[in-house]
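User: Can you help me understand a structure? I only have the sequence.
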Amino acid sequence: MKYKMLCTDMDGTLLNSNKDISDRTKEAIKKAHEKGVHIVVSTGRMFNSANYYADMLHIKAPIISANGAFIREKDKNDVIYKNVLGKDKCNSLLKVLQKHKVHAHFHTPNAMFSDKMVFSAKIYSDMNSYLPEDNKIDIHIVEKDWEQIFEKYEDSIVKCIAIDEDVEKIKNVKSEIMKMSGIEVVSSYENNCEIMTEGVSKGRGVEILAGYYGLNPEEIICIGDNENDLSMIKVAGLGIAMGNAPEDIKKQADYVTDNNDSDGVAKAIEKFILNS
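Assistant: Let's start by predicting it. Here is the structure, written out as tokens:
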């Protein structure tokens, strides 16, 4: 068997527009898993949120969360990898966000700190209404005690995300943050930028898991749809872009599958794993 690990992004890839995983996709993943392929969920989301959707696959799947900053086996407490921002970077990032009047969102694997119940904080708060207790996100609204938060959670904050309806404002924030040293910046949508510590990416997460399982890049398929997926699409032996991905992502992939509402992930698995 040529391919031994499949890494798939979540939003815009594994999940359709209704935030569901289609039956065809579940079946294809199940059959690939039964053939001995390691199935990996790779996302910018927090671990707890990703874990909820990974449960839908009904298989043991390690999770690359926070764009590669936190990697854990789904059904174990074993943390394979963690790389935090640290309090100094958090304080520097907060100053930039406040300067541009963009609401702050800082993530640990299972908690979020924001200055207002908007954007990601509101989305995760709404999700808590139906998430199982083990997958709920612990949300904290911080008014002015940020330094204490950064001190207390220095060993836990893995990602900062800036989101705003004003895309130009986000572009300005991203441009300024990219000039800072010791960080990585990517976007999963045009209205956000996601910040991790230097060296963190989904691609690096894939490399870490490849070492964990003793695999070569040629034995790995990665599927995604946006900028934060590009690093893993490039590092894979077979990098696949979704049909709904922007054109610049498609051009850098080895293959383009169908979109996320037309079973693009399932069709890729069927073509390259099940029917090969």
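Now, to help you interpret it: The mean pLDDT is 96. DSSP finds ten helices and 14 strands in the chain. Let me know which part you'd like to focus on.
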